[in-house]
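Hi, here's the filled form for the chain we discussed.

Project: internal
Contact: R.S.
Residues: 88
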Amino acid sequence: MERVRLKVHVKGRVTIPKEFRERLGIKEGDHVEVVLMEDQRALLIHAPARGWLEDMLDVLRRVFPDKSTGEIMNELRRGWEEYEGERV
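And the returned structure, exactly as it came back:
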């Protein structure tokens, strides 16, 4: 395992060393995820570009944390039907 110590700059920014970026295939504009482990260690993950649908589902999963994707979609359909019914 390779390890490097990073300095936190203004606004919490850190620079991932070039060697790490190259080996992970991280390019300017890419997204990375940092996962805080139970033992307080952080894990950096290269997160390839995702589509708008995956991003929207992430938001909806936070709004409806105890529901499956199917249940979320049903909630949205019901809400849309109610909205459409009010417009008539």
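Let me know if anything looks off before we file it.
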